[in-house]
Amino acid sequence: MNFEWKRGFTIDFNLKTGLSAAVESSKRRASNMKGMYCDSEAELKLIENGDPLMYEFHEIGAPEDSGDIAAGTSIVYPGKVGDEYYMTAGHFHTILDTAETYYCLSGEGYMLTENKEGDAVAHPLKAGEMVYVPKGYAHRSINTGDVPLVTFFAFRADAGHDYGTIKQRGFKKLIVEKNGVPEIIDNPRY
Q: pTM to 2 decimals?
């Protein structure tokens, strides 16, 4: 049996193996991240000089119902805007009572987490390690290495995404390169 799902996925149902769905992919270039980095001049130069791909993610396209699990992979490419490392936009879940897990497949970096009160924690990420993002925390992946940072993620499928809050205020902390190594600093625009 085939079902046409609301995002345009075709889902095949096999009585022996269950559901399988096509993967939905999204890519974010420097122009999609405009305003997310502190150094707006460096941001603009990057956009004008090729608009590089900063990250992409691939989701399995699970039904967005209570009890289902959304999962996929995220790839953050190496690079910097000024002294800030490439990162994902970051988000809260629309249903704040949602936790998420990330398992690092390759690369190195950080998972920056922050709750609505501004309590921020930077969790190191490297291949073979998992980060648990507690419910009520926004999160973003940051690549501090020189190869792609690849993670597998999973969360409740009906959680939704709130990117707007982070776009407005950013995160309280930034991860920047200082003297050739990552350093966690206060965000001057927070």
A: 0.87
